[in-house]
């Protein structure tokens, strides 16, 4: 059959090119009310007074929520009021919620709510937050309920992850060369094209129905039950197709407001659709980072020691930033074998929008710091940067920062990725090529690795049911966010059952009442976890089919084979039964029937994951490490410091290619996102902590034609635990792009670049430009 | 709130809708006609997800008042039937989440009609109007060029 | 989602539009002329624009013309930028207009709308400033035709109830050598860091700028410095930079110092491209 590897067109393709594909906001009933959020105009301010008198008189207004103490929310630390009370901690924070008959009425009323603020000193960066005399974002940090976090009351530290490995004294003693550097960038945004949208309705019997554009509908159910003490069995969360997510829709926020809105109007259905400005400001963003890296190496360029400090810009509320801080710690060194290691990874509170996961989950961020440092080290040692990476590349037999022993399965082959990169980017032809007096072509490279630091007990389930023609319906809790995972699940099933993939139907929508749970659609873990559950379900189906057939065919199960939607005798395929004959029971010619409908089930839970030791970080944070190598080539103008992206290369050890074009698309799309993050995307803040660019005309993702030519290739080192050996691939294209671009531009401009985004003005400034430009 | 009854020519049919003068074409076709193919992405003319076709030209339906569309021919993604650009988007994997796709296709569709001989520069000029956050644009480029080459 | 309601009028005659404005103004409806109307929507939705009566000028015949009248090329104010580009009668205008917003939006944005915009770039005015064009304006005092350089001071100086009808440009300028460069914070999309448009008339180079200051402008003094052939090129550019109006923008697109750095290079490019003596 060989469906694996084929570029099977995604199952929902027709719907998506005809406008029939439906997203949360496309579901609308006439009775649905509209919720509108009023947001904080400042980064940090006391709420002195909220006056809703005028707003309440507006026509169509059903309810206004403001100033009320709802239960605190937040995943690891309950530090976030659904609506700000007493003070606001970031620009864009929800302060009030208006529920009205129409969106226009809600907006009109929201505009008439008068709020008086008194400004408070703003915490502008994680570095400032870390200082002893910094203003406090949370004065009552010690009083919050917490889990898996180590907040330090009286400071802005939300959590601190320690990695301690080897012997630091020995490491420094063995080093002849050291490099030390700081790196920094502000938060930015996911900018998924579909802004977040949630609806909620509470039925008279107490059933809470939520529809939401989310990567984590099962978490929505769990958290709403837990935050508001609701009966979890009465919460039903539906998620239709999602219009891009990139981690930003893994946080639970708008759902809570929709729920509170509905509750305030006696359970009537309420919809909240983020405007783009709210999606950028109010909903959680892409985390920022201040990093300090110190490496020591011996004469041969072998890195002996690393001392790393990450100050993550978690923003005003810790939510997922606690996990991001942990993920950054467990892979803190990048994909290099460093035996002596000290890393402090802090989640810092600031007066910035708070962070949610972003594609790569801390890894594109830390890779910028690590891989720029690698180039600085190469320069100091006068070793070719590619060679330096080869010499230190992680491999089986090495241990990770959290002391997981790597074997031939749980890590990919980084050396092979680097060698392939060498060819694709024509490294041996030289890093810099002069075009003329002004223009040069310059290449930069980088590497990455990533494991998925997910909850040790995260699980996934799949149910298979038949249609009477023998075709199969797949039900999985994976959300179709654009990655094509559900189509790949159909391929895996087709392969296992050796059947036509067109006879496999996939339920795209998730409904937490009838779809088996898939923890969250994050961390490139869809195929790994749901795929394993699916294979188990497929085996369950095969077993049941054979059982039925063995009775009808009067043959032992062991002699039967399943393929082409049939069960037949291994040595005589002519004798057999179609799925259609037995999937709803078998009927004998006289009408007697046996068996019943066949329902396949499968589940999966990750094996042997463990919590990290609080003092050393030792523990198993994720199942496997995917590795990759990257290159970027730019054409650089030495006069203007402007540049054009010419080529971008990613070589990733993907284990097995399940769907070629889909995999290439994931990698190229991620590269595009990484380059935009590296080259242009950032929040600009003013002294009040206000984000100055909350629109897509000022916050600018890559546009058509700004992209480079993409060169993508795969190395295939199977992960023995994964379906058909496939490793995750959704995130990896992002990870090395900022560093590779930074490395190329640092060489091109002749100055070391330590900040993002890499705009021409940054290069000009780093070159000391402002001194000679004034008139 | 003053409501107005207006006639819109949408996908070849005359439709009567009740709107405020302040309502955009996007709001009218989605909310009043149930044509949800055009997507709100920014409501500010920046992202192109709501692109429809007005008298043959691409139009961001969030930047047009419904009243301004009276007397014009509006085509939405639902009005395209088996066009080669739709097929090309499928074959070339030119979308992932699909949210920007109707807008992108409507823009490409107009481009192919208006400039069947479009060169790289023209294609870039036109397609810069839409944001796709999932792909890196390579697949969209292939899709649109595959149709232009056939013309 | 516009958080206010308005009445909508679509006059077909100039005097009708003028009269409508006057009567609506008297009724305190805060009337607003629109042609493309994009700013009504984008600024209105964030409470930076407000009206209770919209007067749409799109159907007024005089505002839709695009033709040569004798030695002059006449553009109506409600032509969309796309239409102007596609017809391409004035290559400098085509080039400058083609960098505004994006292609689809330019199918809605009009010439008059861009020149009279609240957003301070208003880049399509640059070619007309360079070409000493004439503008036709109508209002309660009737029609008037004025040199654009007399009436465009940072913005078009319209009195209450007046609107731009047409712009007329002498053919000589339309055929003159030109350069138009838009430099952005990064890559090919986004607002300008600086847009420079330049024309060469005889031996004289004319330069107009947008994005440098919170208004577009053409400066005679700056041009005099650039055209001073007695001096070496660097001195000419230095002298030109000393003649800039203030303030120099300092915002998220770029700092004022960086803008000056970019401008210096752009002025070199302009002279290199247009001045044979360079």
TrEMBL record, chain A:
SMART domains: Ald_Xan_dh_C. Gene3D superfamilies: Aldehyde oxidase/xanthine dehydrogenase, a/b hammerhead (3.90.1170.50), Aldehyde oxidase/xanthine dehydrogenase, molybdopterin binding domain (3.30.365.10). It holds the Pfam family MoCoBD_1. The keyword Hydrolase does not apply. Keywords: Molybdenum, Oxidoreductase. SUPFAM superfamilies: CO dehydrogenase molybdoprotein N-domain-like, Molybdenum cofactor-binding domain. Signal peptide: none annotated. Residues 18-121 form the Aldehyde oxidase/xanthine dehydrogenase a/b hammerhead domain. The keyword Oxidoreductase applies. GO terms for molecular function: iron ion binding; oxidoreductase activity. PANTHER family: ALDEHYDE OXIDASE 1-RELATED, XANTHINE DEHYDROGENASE. This is Aldehyde oxidase. It comes from Peribacillus loiseleuriae. The lineage of its organism: Bacteria, Bacillati, Bacillota, Bacilli, Bacillales.
From TrEMBL, chain B:
The keyword Flavoprotein does not apply. Gene3D superfamilies: 3.10.20.30, [2Fe-2S]-binding domain (1.10.150.120). The keyword Oxidoreductase applies. SUPFAM superfamilies: 2Fe-2S ferredoxin-like, CO dehydrogenase ISP C-domain like. PROSITE patterns: 2FE2S_FER_1, 2FE2S_FER_2. Keywords: 2Fe-2S, Iron, Iron-sulfur, Metal-binding, Oxidoreductase. Pfam families: Fer2 (PF00111), Fer2_2 (PF01799). Residues 4-80 form the 2Fe-2S ferredoxin-type domain. GO terms for molecular function: 2 iron, 2 sulfur cluster binding; metal ion binding; oxidoreductase activity. This is (2Fe-2S)-binding protein. It comes from Peribacillus loiseleuriae. The lineage of its organism: Bacteria, Bacillati, Bacillota, Bacilli, Bacillales.
UniProtKB/TrEMBL annotation, chain C:
Gene3D superfamilies: 3.30.465.10, CO dehydrogenase flavoprotein, C-terminal domain (3.30.390.50), Uridine Diphospho-n-acetylenolpyruvylglucosamine Reductase, domain 2 (3.30.43.10). Residues 1-174 form the FAD-binding PCMH-type domain. The keyword Transport does not apply. InterPro entries: CO_DH_flav_C, CO_DH_flav_C_dom_sf, Diverse_Substr_Oxidored, FAD-bd_PCMH, FAD-bd_PCMH-like_sf, FAD-bd_PCMH_sub1, FAD-bd_PCMH_sub2, Mopterin_DH_FAD-bd. PANTHER family: XANTHINE DEHYDROGENASE SUBUNIT C-RELATED (PTHR42659:SF2). This is Xanthine dehydrogenase. Signal peptide: none annotated. The keyword Transit peptide does not apply. GO terms for molecular function: FAD binding; oxidoreductase activity. It comes from the Bacteria.
